[in-house]
Amino acid sequence: NNQILKTYATAHASGNRGGQLEFGINDGAFSGIKVINSVAANSSYNKQEITFTTHEGAVSVAERMRITSTGNVKIKTTADYYANDLVVGCADNGGITLAGGTGDLQYLAFADGTSGDARYRGYIEYGHTADAMALATAGGERMRIDSAGTMFLGTSTPTLHSATRGIVFENGSIINDVTRGAGKSITLAQNLAIDS
Predict the structure, then answer these.
(1) DSSP state of 51
(2) Which of 28, 40, 59, 61 has a Cα at 20 to 30 A from 53?
(3) Are residues 87 and 72 in contact, defined by beta-carbon separation less than 8 angstroms?
(4) Is 90 exceeded by the pLDDT of residue 22?
(5) pTM for this one?
(6) Which whole number is the average pLDDT over 70-87?
């Protein structure tokens, strides 16, 4: 049972804080991992968080990631947002990349269970072989944009459309520059508007 353990009593005077455990390098400024104790909103002492701090050369020492006392993960930010399980602070050209091979499928999935299509009730799919993106609801694909920019609603059958970019519906009808006229707008009754 090898461990480094810091214990403290929970019944301290209001405003006191427990100690913290640090793993890292201190060359005038600490860089590494800290297990910190911070005062919770009710001034209790059952709030521990883990922070990751880095610096390189002239780059200022700063916290880069935090696992909060509730298990949320914050990367390059300490702010709270509406969806807080994973928050990434992004500057200009920042973001998240899913990197794969030229023949791979990649997904961002929304699950409400651990078996069958409950594992992917909703998802965004990108297929690198066809360079196509799909959007799914209720466990099935509902919309696809192919490599030519054609949008399929309720179908992904390529034989229903010509090479002209546009929108293909489940019944095979097409909206593109040929059918609606180039440079014109069209609005359908079922909440779909297209404006070139």
Answers:
(1) E
(2) 40
(3) yes
(4) no
(5) 0.70
(6) 92
